[in-house]
Each structure stands twice: as C-alpha cells, then as structure tokens.
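This part of the workshop introduces the protein records we will be handling. The question running through the whole workshop is how a given chain folds. To make this concrete, we reproduce a full record directly below:
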Amino acid sequence: RTARSQDRLDEAQRAQWKLIGPIDTAAGIDAKEALRNRLARHQVGAFEELSTLYDLPQELERLEPTQTFRWIDRFARFISSPLVSSLLLMLGMMFFFNEMGSPGLGLPGFLAATCFGLYFWAHYLGGTAHWLEIMMFAFGVVFILMEIFVIPGLGIFGFGGVVLIIVSIVLASQTFIVPTTQEDFARLPASLGMIVAMAVGGAIPIYLLPRYLHRIPFLKRLSLNPAVDQAFADVGQRESTVHLEYLRGKMGVAITSLKPGGKVRFGDEDVSAVTDGKLIDRGTKVVVKEVRGNRVLVDLADYQTD
C-alpha cells in the first residue's frame, strides 16, 4: 500500500502491514524489486508460463498500436511538454489580442484558435484535460467577447472570463485541483508557468507590437499606417512650426463647419480654429479674435466689435 492509503487505516489494519520505506519508481523497477516489495506475486520468463499459471488460452490476440497512432501519441507528448505548451499559450494570447484589434475575422483569429486547440487536444489525449476544462475555456472566451462587444464597461463578464480561462489552463495541465503531495507541488510551477506565458503573450500585442512591429522587416507589412490627407498634414506641419500671432484681426472663411472646432481659410492658408461655443456653418466669414500659441479663436465677422 502507499502512504496515502495507509493514512485511512485504523490501528488494527496498520498492524498487518510492514513499513519498508519509500519506493522510487521514477526510473522503473525490475521483477526482483517488485517481488521483494510485494508489488508482484510471481515472476515468469515467457508467455507460456503466464498461460499455465493463470490457465489462459494459448492463442491470444495481441493488439499492437498502428504507426499512425504512435505518430499521434508522440506528437501529443511533444505538444504537452511544458516548454511547447507555454509557447502555444503565449502565441495564442498574442494572436487573440491582435485579432481583437483588427476588424472582422482574419488570420490572427485562426492562428489563436489553432494554438489553443492544439493545447487542449494534446492534454486531452494525455489524460489531464477533460470536457470540463474545455468548456470553461470556451465560456471564458465568450464572456470576454461579450464584455468587449455587447456590454462594454460592466466588468463582470470580462473578469469572470479571465478567471475561467486561467483556471481552465491550470487544470488542463495537471491531474489535481489542490496540491497535496510532493509530486503535486513539484508539478505546480509548470502549471503556473502556463499563466506567465499567457501574460507575456497578452503583453506583446498590447505594448510591444504597436511600437516595434513596423521595424521588423518581415512583419512590418502587417501594420497599417494612418491614412492622412496630405493637404491637412501640410497644414498641421505649418501650424506646429509657425507662430500664428499675425492672424489676429484677420478675416477668413470657414471651409468646414465649426462645432466649435474646424478649419478656416485665410487667403491661401488653411488653419485650425475654434469658436467660443457658437456653431458656425461652412462658408461663413469669420474674424480672428484671439491667438494663444497655436490656438486660434474666431467669431462671426458681423459680431466682431474689437
């Protein structure tokens, strides 16, 4: 019996067992050690001896795994390793947040679904993930999408979705809920490492990609440059470098509606201007009342009394 099962025995039952100390099975045990520790009853050298001992039929059908099954098993073991699983989660979160910042459903969304799907598929075959963890993750994603697109600002669905995703990822990577043994505590850092990988994957598209994506040779085409009208760009450049005090008292024409901000043309120059709260239609004559740095205050020309 193991130490855990022995804790559930009463004194009379414990007296029937002999304490032999811990048994290390990490590297495997041979037949002699199994017999010595009473983990096995008999040792046989061939299948014929086993058939005679247990009165089994001489002809038994042996089930051998197919080559495809072996390949799938090796692939699942590779994906479920802590390093590869952490990488999948990091990439999945990166693609997920990138998809949230892009219109429609595109390549980042497909890649995010692939990364998370491979993670849960491998751990499902490994026996650590079940339908409960998969459903928790799916509901977590749905809650986050509801928080972003359906009921933004409430916070409850977003927080609940994040909690569900974190719990599902941790439970899918281990066979216990609360660690109780030394083996469980040894496994816990790897499970928590999955959460760190997800946090890093979420930070990359939020903080790093907007700043450095355009500098990466093969990825800069994924970023979009803001479409700015060249005429307005030239105006903005002139306004940021030219002192506008000379416009005080000048007459101009509003080339856009001033609500209260807009554009006013003075001769052949277009300048950003604001009113003191009035709504001025496009094409109306205005006069500059005040200039403070790059802020130009205008009013209707008919009401100018200064």
